[in-house]
Amino acid sequence: MSTTVKELFRAQPVVLAPMAGVTDAAFRGAVSSYGAALVYSEMVASKELLSDRKGAALRFRNTQAGTRIAIQLAGRDPNVLAEAALMAEAEGALLIDINMGCPAKKVVGGLCGSALMREPQLARELVRAVVKAVSVPVTVKMRLGWDDADRNAPTLAKALQEEGVQAFAVHGRTRAQFYDGCADWQFIGEVKSAVSVPVLANGDVTTAANAIQILKDSGADGVMVGRGAFGRPWAIAQMQAAVRGQSIPPDPSSAERWQTALTHYHAALEHYGVELGRRVVRKHLGWYAERAGASRSLRTALVRSIDPEFLLAQLASGRSAEEEFEEAA
Ligand SMILES: Cc1cc2nc3c(=O)[nH]c(=O)nc-3n(C[C@H](O)[C@H](O)[C@H](O)COP(=O)(O)O)c2cc1C
Questions:
Q1: Pocket of ligand 1 (CB under 6 A)
Q2: Rounded to 5 degrees, what are φ and ψ at 176?
Q3: Could you identify which of 8, 140, 172, 319 might form a hypothetical disulfide with 183, taking C-beta atoms 3.0 to 4.6 angstroms apart as the criterion?
């Protein structure tokens, strides 16, 4: 099975990071439509999934045909996590990823996410239970450690590999940093040296050039990209071409990017229903507008409008954003 994961990342070395509130079915579909082979779900709390609370299952449901998904789970109870993993496997997950990196107080306070980096024994038990429960490969996403005094990612990864983890994604910051400072790409290399399974390097990759650079600095097998894909779901495929030494697909034309936004909008409404869908997709429309260099007034109109579909459709028809906004206003 390990060869399968190795082959997967060798063939497709750039993946979309798990991001709560962002990498839902609609956004994953948009990223996949540009050729990214693997996209991670939002973190799904295993306890909520089992108790069917807060729409947890919606977070990993794959409404877009053809999307290859890794489902990320969070939890601290081995039995609950294993059962949630079985549900994720049944949903079609290609990989089950365990979150050991989330820095949020709410998550860490419940001994989940990056708090697990300070509980290596519990981390081992969680991995063991999930590996035993499912037949798909199990991966772990972690940070460098809790803080600079305890950068234990290499030793923890080594221990978790012994329990059957088949790949790691490492965000090059400590928990104490949250999102401050710069990701330490070199230190990710220490995790790579400690294990024999693939390592994905993560943190601050926003361009094809720095996707190549993070691989050089870390020696990792692949790259995981989060915020760099906001408002440009095509970026993952561009970075992938770059790291594979292929010619980089150009940015889509203005009409094409708005068509992508419109398709994304429809997918969100289909996934969540109209009311919730419109609320959830709003931030993405803001990011599309920002990346397109749209004026502040157009951006506001897209984000604030109760029903931005007409405006999106006009933009997708190929006329200039400002022109369309003037007419629609
Ligand atoms: C809005 C947001 C939500 C996130 N949610 C998750 C999550 O659910 N699970 C996780 O492992 N990491 C999560 N992360 C962390 C990202 O996966 C990634 O590690 C981090 O953003 C650094 O990568 P980047 O610089 O490419 O964005 C989140 C990050 C952001 C910005």
A1: 17-22, 42-43, 72, 99, 101-102, 141, 171, 202-205, 225-228
A2: -60, -25
A3: 172
